Amino acid sequence: MNAYAAQQAKQAALFHAHPAMWAFFPLLFVVVVISAVILVRWLMSKNAWPYHPGGASGFLRDEVIRYGSIWLPFAVVMVLVRYYIYRFHPELTSSPYLYALYLSVFVFRRLARFLPHIKEIGARIDGARAKARAVADGVLQ
Q1: Which of 4, 48, 60, 62 has the fewest CB within 10 Å, making it most exposed?
Q2: In whole angstroms, what is the distance from residue 96 CA to residue 108 CA?
Q3: Predicted model pTM
Q4: Region for 95 from its dihedrals, namely left if φ exceeds 0, alpha if ψ lies in -120 to 50, beta otherwise
Q5: What is the structure's pLDDT at 128?
């Protein structure tokens, strides 16, 4: 057995021994990163808060719902797939099919934008930002 195969077998054994931990850590990481992105986007749009129908809290709520609706379902599916693989088939951790599943996040994200509630939320956020830009440019008073 060469060193690479031994390392891969050791990794598969570790995944198989603790499947829940290895499946949920990426979800925790994704939630933290998405929360940081939402917070930064919200703070960077401070001048648009007064023009949003819900004010600052409504703007934040819309950002959370929009990103949560787009990313969280995919993240949960990935946790379930990773748990299944780590628990029952740890030899598939380096399968190219698994990497194809990871790449599907881009397709899912693009398709999720067409959901009616995502369109409505996007229109409110974009409308508030456009109005703030127009006021800053002196077009609106």
Answers
A1: 4
A2: 19
A3: 0.71
A4: beta
A5: 94
